[in-house]
Amino acid sequence: MNAARPAAARRAWLSLLVVVAVGVALYVGLPQIAGLDETWGRLSDGDPLWLLAALGLEACSYGGYVVLFRGVFARDGGTPLGWRDSYDITMAGVAATRLFAAAGLGGIALTGWALSRAGMPRRELARGLTTFYMALYGVFMLSLVVFGLGLRTGIFPGPAPFGVTVVPAAFGGAVIVVALAIALLPNDLERRARARMPGRERAARWARTLAATGEALSGGVRGALRMLFRGDPALLGALAWWAFDIAVLWACFHAFGEPPPVAVVVMSYFTGMLANVLPLPGGVGGVEGGMIAALLAFGVPGGLAVVAVLTYRAFAFWLPTIPGALAYLRLRHSVRDWAGAPRAEAP
Question: Which residue ranges make up each domain of the chain?
């Protein structure tokens, strides 16, 4: 185990170097590639008050994330998590996601490790993580539907190109339907799989694994729906996470020019965020490119779109990485003090 640590450290440093290299290439090269030579120089012309407001809004966004996390795990999971522990886990998860996006798998892995050290059983952990991410991304998918169709039908003011309104709305609706279908899976799916495959050890093992996964996902989706039906105030954390982060992008537009309509900002933001499923370090390049492309499709001037999005990403991506790394270091010390936690190596 000790011999593996230098190799793991080298991989971590390599991932960090990749993030830095891609980020530098993007931030320096994109304006040149797009023929926007003066865009980068506009950063010094940004209104400092709006940029300061963007910093405060980003802090509020992460505050919402912590509220939702603690609402799901500290109460329902019965884990010994205080506000500081919840902050450390969420911010350390952010740093892990920055190194490897892929739909947030890096952050999910670190969160799972920390909660298992806090004493949460594996099944409850899987169910809790599903509840957490269903609540969080349920707002994402519902926003695609509401704002996409709202723009297309004229409920919200602004241009409404088919490709960045109806297509994302259809995707969000399909994800919502799939999630609701998962909620209909029976609670005893694993027991049924075991009863139907007696004497087939290997096949039964795979069937039980799939059934247990489906059972945990179903329980997690139902957990998110229960939070919604009982009006759990922790869900306000999910709304705050997205709303304040979108407000950061909106403030960056104000810092450099006239912002487009709010619904256009929302749709461009969420369309760009879909690039987080790509296996890029922290989504670097994919998110920025997706947001800028969506804004251009809505008719936003190219120079303003580039400078606003890159400034937004400086707040949303780079600034939380340092406190996230510090939170991870503190988290490693905290887990050693949690009574009854199984011993495990940090990811």
Answer: 4-179+217-335
